[in-house]
Design a protein that fits this description.
Structural class: alpha+beta
Shape: elongated
Strand order of the largest sheet: 2-3-1-4
Largest sheet: 4 strands, antiparallel
Radius of gyration: 27 Å
Number of strands: 10
Number of helices: 11
Distance between the termini: 66 Å
Length: 295
């Protein structure tokens, strides 16, 4: 393979963020006909971290562009570092994009270091590497109390997944233990084109299990819960367990059903979520693992 006389340089920028930083640096690169191979930026509390990987012809022009970038950085009040990248190293990095890509969303009322450490430890154990981290929710005040507190970040990761079943089980476990929702998806065209969102009902859109509420009112709460637990443990068939639980509710007044329906505790934020999904054109559906059996 013939490689033209060229250099690849990683420009690393840090400092106080302000308008004109990217414009000032890229205008200098443009004057030397540099090719932008990759670029990424993060801005946390007005502190900038910017990386530009660029290609330029070997020779006096490469020294000149570095000098001009240093002068521009001084003018803008930022710091810059230059890292030369060899052609072989760059090509190895390019070939790495053939690895599988995944998206992991972490959502909770607050995001703690304990939650993030647990999630990233599972990823590390599966040899998954983080390519980027994006905050999807707005900045959170530490003084004013929000009506709908939420914090969500998105991790873009790559790697050859060792055991998909294992990583899903691990995420489910820490989700329950650490009070955080975790969505793990392959990053492909189908993820981006989804327009239907389906929800469970009990303990999801509503903060209760309806059949348990009815059972308590009928005086058979313990029996119903025992059957439910047996079904969840795989000891009896789900449909059979549902028939047994409903049989225990036989004779329950319709007024009781109506009263329970009127007083179901809607999960905090559910109305807002549905409104947002409708605004953005999504179709929504509710799938119940119980009463669907009779419909």
């Amino acid at each position: 393979m013939v490689v033209e006389d060229k250099e690849i340089i990683l420009l690393k920028v840090s400092g106080q963020d302000k308008p004109g930083v990217t414009a000032g640096l890229t205008s200098i690169l443009a004057s030397y006909d540099a090719i932008i191979l990759d670029i990424g930026q993060a801005d946390i509390h007005d502190t900038l971290s910017l990386g530009i990987l660029f290609e330029i012809k070997t020779g006096s022009s490469s020294a000149a562009v570095l000098k001009d970038l240093l002068f521009k950085a001084y003018e803008l009040g930022i710091k810059v570092n230059f890292i030369p990248i060899t052609i072989p190293d760059y090509e190895i990095w390019v070939k790495g994009q053939s690895k599988q890509r995944y998206i992991i969303n972490i959502l909770g009322e607050t995001l703690t270091a304990v939650q993030l450490a647990a999630v990233t430890k599972i990823m590390s154990d599966q040899n998954l590497n983080i390519d980027s981290i994006i905050r999807l929710t707005g900045r959170v005040s530490v003084v004013e109390k929000e009506e709908y507190p939420r914090s969500c970040i998105q991790l873009s990761v790559t790697g050859n997944l060792i055991d998909k079943t294992s990583i899903n089980a691990s995420f489910m476990q820490i989700s329950g233990e650490l009070d955080v929702d975790i969505a793990f998806q392959e990053d492909n065209m189908y993820r981006r084109n989804r327009r239907l969102v389906c929800f469970d009902m009990d303990s999801t859109l509503i903060q209760t299990e309806v059949i348990d509420e009815l059972a308590d009112l009928a005086g058979v709460g313990e029996q119903v819960r025992a059957i439910t637990e047996s079904a969840m443990n795989g000891e009896i068939d789900f449909n059979e367990s549902f028939k047994k639980r409903m049989a225990l509710l036989e004779g329950l007044s319709e007024d009781v059903l109506q009263n329970v329906a009127k007083n179901l505790p809607i999960t905090k934020g559910a109305h807002r979520l549905m409104k947002a999904l409708k605004y953005y054109g999504y179709k929504t559906a509710i799938l119940s693992g119980g009463f669907t059996y009779f419909w």
